[in-house]
Each structure stands twice: as C-alpha cells, then as structure tokens.
Design a protein that fits this description.
4-stranded antiparallel sheet; mainly beta; single chain; 117 residues; 56% strand
C-alpha cells in the first residue's frame, strides 16, 4: 500500500515563499519518478514539476525560475520550494509517485496553497 502525505501548504502573500513536502511510505522509493501537480477551482489538474529516479527535473513553463523540486531518497521525501508566489499559483497541490516497472500512479490527498494579492 503506497501512501503519500503532503504538508506545508497555507496562506501567503504574493511575492512570498512556501515549501511543500511529501513523505512516501513505499519500498524502493528511489525507483519512483515523483511529481507535484496542482488543481485550481474549475481547472484541470496540471503538472507543476517532476523529478525522475535519475534526478532529471521538469517544470511547467509557468513556474520555471520560481519553483524548485528536489528529493531525498533516504528520507523518502520529495520537496517543492515555491518562491515569488503569484495569486495564480493558488491551488490544491498533489504529490504523485509513478513506478516505472508497473506503470502505476499513486496520489496524495493534497495540500492547499492560497496566494493573496
């Protein structure tokens, strides 16, 4: 049973910073590609950033230069550092784990980030 638990969401003013964490209860964490997605009200869920098992990273154009994804395999944790936040970053942020061998995807319950103008 794979469980992903996000933390670190909250309310911040525009221009501020927040850091999100996602702890995975999973064996062989290092073999998973990890990602952060977000879903704003009335919008589809979208990829924010991802980091592969080989440590390659990818970012949505809207967050490049502002957000940084990282992972600590020893702690089975993936992080998302968000700087220069904008009101349009307001969304529920979800942690995703993708296991390459099986093609399975796992999701956390999400953490709300609200950026006030």
């Amino acid at each position: 049973q794979v469980q992903l638990v996000e933390s670190g969401g909250g309310l911040v003013q525009a221009g501020g910073s927040l850091g999100l964490s996602c702890v995975a209860s999973v064996s062989f964490f290092s073999s998973y590609d990890m990602g952060w997605y977000r879903q704003a009200p009335g919008e589809q869920r979208e990829l924010v950033a991802s980091v592969t098992s080989g440590l390659a990273t990818k970012y949505a154009d809207s967050v490049k230069g502002r957000f940084t994804i990282s992972r600590d395999n020893a702690k089975k944790t993936v992080y998302l550092q968000m700087n220069s936040l904008k009101p349009e970053d307001t969304a529920v942020y979800y942690c995703n784990a993708h296991r390459l061998i099986t093609g399975m995807d796992y999701w956390g319950k999400g953490t709300l980030v609200t950026v006030s103008s």
